[in-house]
Design brief:
Length: 473
């Protein structure tokens, strides 16, 4: 029996289940390969010397009335971690992933990949995963077979989720990799490509619903243009709005109550993408009457590629009521492309987490690790190192954010700065009684003479840094 109080309750239960199914197998357990040679990852505190342990992320620790696990809602992504062999545009796969590459039995290989993925999720001890349709199920000889492969793998995922207690944060459809989507999915000049993408999204949404997903993501990977010489932005915008309207109708029809997210990204793979950043998505949703149907899934690296800070993207979304979820992977400050690295900067994450948790935290989304190992991180165990470090960084940033919220370090400074707008003049300006002429007359009559005040940026930066340095974890 596993009775280790450093393991989240759920994981200990799964291990007990695994123990009894192994003994029930009575000698036949050679059929159940173990892909990751490690014990489940435990919280051991900041002083541990064990590289395969959490130092900060303590799933069961209560912070402001909820466990860290409930606040952070961490998910592991299927695609980079289990479906990608470590290839790049200049070279082949480098990773040790025995579950990839068995082309003689694609469905057997898909089940093996899923066994490896769920073993990893359960040993890491995080509560959620995310997947694209094509990550979990191979293409068949025709589209009909592709759809039945997906259904079969969704059944298998349901069994694995039941066994391990791991849940689905969100599902999505890959409508960007296949050559049929080279000119876009919803925004393709060919309505047949639109129809094909619509079918894939329908099945992926139904799969997420069937697996109890908390939400569903649409990343418009090819929804953009390469050249304006052959592109009508107006036509493509109308197609995208039509697509999103159809998806929202279908969500209601099947009774899926999870939130729907669009994932802003300025470019890559296309030269220019229509979901450029939070503000662009917000304007699009407003223009096509889709506000309240879709929220944003903000990725740290996509924010920086768009010329913004991650803090900016989150603050914009929170303040405009479109905040949904986070992909926690970061970029490289010297590279202009999407490196999808594991988060390692508390400084970068803490101010953004401050916005999220000051506004009440997640309503449906969570922190998905849409993260990639570096291509030279060959070993299977490197997947654990990447996730453990990223999760501890996130947990630390969360504790800093909660400290800033509890002490009202930033909210008080912000409220004080705008206090005049709650006073007589501010309220008058905002009222229907005011006009430009009346305000101007008031300036003369009352000898209004504004005095500049310090924005105190450095003092505030010091407060944030002190919270980072002093926060007890
Ligand atoms: C691509 C990206 C995707 C989405 C899901 O940059 O972030 O992996 O998160 O399609
Ligand atoms: Co992403």
């Amino acid at each position: 029996m596993w009775e280790d109080n450093k393991l989240p309750g759920r994981v200990a239960e799964w291990l007990n289940g695994l123990g009894s199914s192994l003994s029930a197998l009575d000698g036949r357990c050679q059929t159940m390969a173990e892909f990751f040679k490690t014990e489940p990852i435990r919280f051991e505190g900041p002083d541990t010397t064990n590289p395969l342990a959490f130092r900060v992320y303590d799933a069961d620790r209560i912070v402001a009335g909820k466990t860290m696990e409930e606040h952070l809602r961490i998910a592991v992504c299927y695609w980079h971690s289990f479906a990608w062999p470590g290839s790049d545009i200049f070279g082949d796969g480098t990773f040790d992933r025995p579950w990839i590459g068995n082309t003689s039995d694609p469905m057997g290989a898909a089940r093996q990949k899923m066994d490896a993925a769920f073993e990893f999720f359960a040993k890491l001890g995080t509560p959620y995963f995310c997947f694209h349709d094509r990550d979990i199920a191979p293409d068949g000889a025709d589209y009909g077979e592709t759809v039945s492969n997906l259904h079969a793998m969704v059944d298998y995922a349901a069994e694995k989720m039941d066994e391990t207690g791991v849940k689905l944060l969100w599902g999505t459809a890959n409508v960007f990799s296949h050559p049929r989507f080279a000119a876009g999915a919803a925004t393709n000049p060919d309505p047949e490509a639109f129809a094909f993408a619509a079918s894939q999204v329908r099945h992926a949404l139904e799969a997420a619903h069937r697996l109890g997903g908390t939400s569903y993501v649409l990343w418009g990977g090819r929804e953009g243009y390469e050249t304006l010489l052959n592109t009508s932005m107006k036509q493509e915008g109308e197609q995208l709005a039509r697509f999103l309207t159809l998806v929202a109708e279908h969500k209601r029809k099947i009774g899926f109550t999870g939130q729907m997210f669009l994932e802003p990204k300025p470019q890559e793979p296309t030269k220019h993408q229509y979901d450029y950043d939070s503000a662009t998505v917000h304007g699009f949703l407003e223009r096509y009457d889709l506000l309240g149907e879709y929220y944003v899934n903000i990725e740290v690296n996509h924010a920086t590629l768009g010329g913004h800070s991650f803090h900016h993207e989150v603050a914009y979304a929170v303040e405009n009521g479109i905040f949904g979820s986070i992909d926690a992977n970061r970029g490289d400050p010297q590279n202009g492309w999407d490196t999808d690295q594991f988060p390692n900067s508390v400084e970068e994450l803490a101010p953004a987490l401050h916005e999220i948790f000051a506004a009440g935290g997640f309503k449906g989304g969570g922190f998905n690790f849409d993260t990639k190992l570096r291509r030279q991180s060959l070993d299977r165990i490197d997947l654990f190192h990447g996730h453990i470090g990223g999760i501890d960084t996130l947990a630390k940033a969360f504790l800093v954010a909660m400290d800033l919220i509890e002490k009202e370090t930033l909210s008080k400074a912000r409220t004080d700065r705008y206090a005049g707008w709650k006073g007589d003049l501010g309220s008058y300006i905002m009222s229907d009684n005011a006009s430009l002429e009346a305000i101007s007359d008031k300036v003369l009559a009352e000898r209004i003479d504004p005095k500049p005040v310090s924005g105190q940026q450095e003092a505030l930066e010091n407060l944030v840094n002190r919270a980072i340095w002093s926060e007890r974890s």
